[in-house]
Specification:
43% of the residues lie in helices and 19% in strands. It has helices at 47-52, 62-67, 71-76, 79-84, 96-102, 128-138, 156-177, 196-209, 225-235, 253-260, 271-277, 309-313, 316-325, 328-355, 358-371; strands at residues 7-13, 16-23, 26-30, 32-37, 58-60, 90-92, 106-108, 113-116, 123-126, 142-144, 185-190, 213-216, 245-247, 266-269, 280-283, 286-289. The protein is globular and about 60 Å long. The relative contact order is 0.13. Strands 4-5-6-10-11-12-13-14 form an eight-stranded parallel barrel, surrounded by five helices. It has a three-stranded antiparallel beta sheet with strand order 1-2-3. It has a three-stranded antiparallel beta sheet with strand order 7-8-9. One of its GO terms (biological process) is tRNA queuosine(34) biosynthetic process. Its EC number is 2.4.2.29. Belongs to the queuine tRNA-ribosyltransferase family.
Length: 377
């Protein structure tokens, strides 16, 4: 069966791409960074701020939402967009990664994963079919296939077993998804760890099944950046050029810039809000630690040229005070500043690709991070 294509590739600059992905709840400009709303909320931020920062799409966490408040309850309340008030496009993961990362009491079989809820210890079974059912109840614009992710480094035998199981689960996920309403999408997930031939085998198997888009999974799970980038170089060219490519769980601004240079279109990570809660700001000068005592008397804003008001309006001395005092406002301001910076970076990438100047943008952006924040004399 032919899988409809909702992605339009608009321009390229080297391997970097920019495009438009049309979903039932709006258009997503790519490359896109998806802020992570784990439990149906962006930690420390209002949805209005997320939208104003420039985000077209956000990520919801299937594992957490199916346990609390429950997928059926969210469906009865109108789906994630209405339940949360976000209203725009939303992608949900399959729940498989959290089963791996959060639960020590889990068992993986051909049929499903069984685990103990981290909330109340109840036994839960999550199969490819149930994962798709949960994501449809949530009302996800983009659902992800159920897969098994292996932390790196790992033995080849373990990586290959998980990759082959993920391919079989991809087939089951697609069959379960086939009754979805028009416009909704299902992405397959390439596994294969840090083994190039397994990555190729996974990509070949998934494209044979056919999906609306393709994700590169099983990276940013303990391997060095050089390994991650080499696996992207192996995988991205093996995926259909007319479909969106999503690098899951990545990452730092540098990771994103380098992955875009290798043909990736979509990203997600908790880093902007998590680091904000710990006193870290992402800027065009690189990352700035507001806990550092050097900011205690600094009247400058984080970046007087930033398009985001909070980055221009608050003195570093005040942000330092909020962070050191443990004031919630400090975490809130730094989280919104970080999300806005990520979106500013994505807009800069999109503009540069559209203008055919991505390599120049990449060089200048990396130079700004390398130069760092220059303290006043």
């Amino acid at each position: 069966m032919t899988v409809p294509n909702h992605f339009e590739l608009l321009a390229t600059s080297g391997a970097a791409r920019t495009g438009r992905l049309t979903t039932p709840h709006g258009v997503v400009r790519t490359p896109a960074f998806m802020p992570v709303g784990t439990a149906g909320a962006m930690k420390g931020m209002h949805w209005r701020e997320v939208r104003d920062a420039g985000a077209d799409i956000v990520l919801g966490n299937t594992y957490h939402l199916m346990l609390r408040p429950g997928a059926e309850r969210i469906a009865a309340l109108g789906g994630l967009q209405r339940f949360t008030g976000w209203g725009g496009p939303m992608l949900t993961d399959s729940g498989g990664f959290q089963v791996m990362s959060l639960s020590e009491l889990r068992k993986v079989t051909e049929k499903a994963v069984t685990f103990r809820s981290h909330i109340d210890g109840a036994k839960v079974e999550l199969s490819p079919e149930r994962s798709i059912e949960v994501q449809r109840l949530l009302g996800s614009d983009i659902a992800m296939q159920m897969d098994e992710c292996v932390r790196l480094p790992a033995e080849r035998a373990d990586i290959e077993r998980a990759m082959q199981l993920s391919l079989r689960w991809a087939e089951r996920s697609k069959r379960a998804f086939e009754a979805a309403p028009d416009g909704y999408m299902l992405f397959g997930i390439v596994q294969g760890g840090d083994v190039p031939d397994l990555r190729h085998a996974s990509a070949h198997g998934l494209t044979g099944i056919g999906f609306h888009g393709y994700a590169i999974g099983g990276l940013a799970v303990g391997e060095p950046q050089a390994v991650m980038l080499s696996m992207i170089e192996e995988t991205a060219p093996a995926l259909p050029s007319d479909r969106p490519r999503y690098l899951m769980g990545v990452g730092t601004p540098e990771d994103i810039l380098e992955a875009v240079a290798r043909g990736v279109d979509m990203f997600d990570c908790v880093m902007p809000t998590r680091n904000g809660r710990h006193g870290m700001a992402f800027t065009r000068f690189g990352q700035i630690n507001l806990r550092n005592a050097r900011h205690i008397d600094d009247p400058r804003p984080l970046d007087e040229e930033s398009p985001w008001p909070a980055a221009r309006s608050y003195a570093r001395a005040y942000l330092h005070h909020l962070v050191r005092a443990g004031e919630t406002l400090g975490a809130m301001l730094l989280s919104e500043i970080n999300v806005a910076y990520y979106q500013e970076l994505m807009q800069g990438i999109r503009d540069a690709v559209a203008n055919g100047t991505f390599e120049d943008f990449r060089t200048k952006t990396r130079a700004g991070w390398a130069r760092g924040d220059i303290a006043p004399r």
